[in-house]
Amino acid sequence: MVTAIYPGSFDPITLGHLDLIERGNRLFDRLIVCVANNPAKSHLFSLEQRMSLIEDAVSCYPNVEVQAFDALLVKSAKDMDASVILRGLRAVSDFDYEFQMAHMNHQLSPEIETVFMMTGEKYFYLSSALVREVASLGGNIESFVPSHVATALNERLAKK
After folding, report:
1. Helix 147-159 / helix 47-58 crossing angle, nearest 10 deg
2. Where are the beta strands (DSSP E) in the chain?
3. Annotated domain spans of the chain
4. pTM score, whole prediction
């Protein structure tokens, strides 16, 4: 049984993230969406809110689960019995950073493989930061995130 983790902050989860989750779901026996808990980083949604939004979005996949992590990624992977780290690549600019991280993770834990998956062409431009920016400026984000996430994001921004 191959377990993979898909780490990120997911603030908020986008349709691009879900595209990778759907495809990873077909490749791995178990896929854990690992939500980064980094108190030093400013997030729009709390860890609990991000996890809840993701859980709602992936509830149709029985072999996908959501967990938080706040340790070194390869340590978290070992703790979750994962042998694969799934990472998405949107553009060439992503590759340099991801390449460095994959090699560092390999040096730390050679038994854990990093698998890169190209983001679907429909979503290659999409990022959580762009979604937050469009929403904060009153733009329609319905085609970028699941409807429950759009509602939560618009409500959250209205409170600010």
Report:
1. 160
2. 3-8, 30-36, 64-69, 84-89, 113-118
3. 3-124
4. 0.94
> Does the active-site annotation cover 90?
yes
Show the tokens assigned to 68: 């938080």
Instruction: Give CATH for domain 3-124.
Output: 3.40.50.620
88-120 pLDDT tens trace: 998 777 888 999 999 999 999 999 999 999 988
Residue 41 is among the residues annotated as catalytic for this protein: yes
Rounded Cα distance, 48 and 20, in Å: 22
Which one from 9, 43, 128, 132 is the annotated catalytic residue?
128
Catalytic residue among 90, 106, 109, 156: 90
Catalytic residue among 17, 43, 87, 132: 17
